[in-house]
């Protein structure tokens, strides 16, 4: 995989926080790409909306199922929701530049205008004074993130839970070792 080859087809530069404009831009990129051609997502993001990340993730999986090849190259920063976005493409289509820094942490969601940080999965038995639908939703999101990382890396469920249990920065070399990316450019 080299940069010239990656940029020979369509590409989308996903930079900044994941938002609706990125979903719309990727839809436009897919629509403009012929079947069998390559789309490269250049990823430099601090994270952002989990709902947008899931929407883009699903969209990229559907694009691949319809015959498009999608490659993702992380460069600079790949943090929070952006780390999970890389699992939308096959391992052999995931790469990073040498100096890319990754950040993993417990998910947080905004529900009813309130920021809710999901307690680590290892503390699932912790009793809340007032159990709410918002807390249940954060657990569902957390379970899906753990499932995606377990299914698309070499990490066990316990290792993924540990990775998301606090603020954990990782280098491109470290994430390559556990199978989030296949190559460092």
Q: Descriptors for this entry?
A:
alpha/beta, two-stranded antiparallel ribbon, 7 helices, 25% strand, globular
Structure description:
The protein has 185 residues and is of the alpha/beta class. The protein has helices at 3-6, 20-31, 50-65, 81-85, 133-152, 157-163, 172-177; strands spanning 10-15, 38-45, 69-79, 94-96, 101-104, 108-111, 114-117, 168-171, 183-184. The strands form two sheets. Strands 1, 2, 3, 4, 5, 8 and 9 form a seven-stranded mixed sheet that branches. A two-stranded antiparallel ribbon has the order 6-7. α3 (50-65) links the parallel β2 (38-45) and β3 (69-79). α2 (20-31) runs parallel beside α3. The relative contact order is 0.15.
**Radius of gyration from the alpha-carbon trace, in angstroms:** 17 Å
Derived from helix and strand composition plus strand pairing, the structural class reads: alpha/beta
Strand segment count: 9
Distance between the termini: 8 Å
The pLDDT mean sits at: 88
| Helix-strand sequence | HEHEHEHEEEEHHEHE
The biggest beta sheet, please? 7 strands, mixed
Low-confidence stretches: none
Helix content: 25-40%
Write the layout of secondary structure elements.
Blueprint: H1 3-6, E1 10-15, H2 20-31, E2 38-45, H3 50-65, E3 69-79, H4 81-85, E4 94-96, E5 101-104, E6 108-111, E7 114-117, H5 133-152, H6 157-163, E8 168-171, H7 172-177, E9 183-184
Parallel strand pairs: 1-2, 2-3, 3-4, 3-5, 4-9
Antiparallel strand pairs: 5-8, 6-7
Helix pairs in contact: 2-3
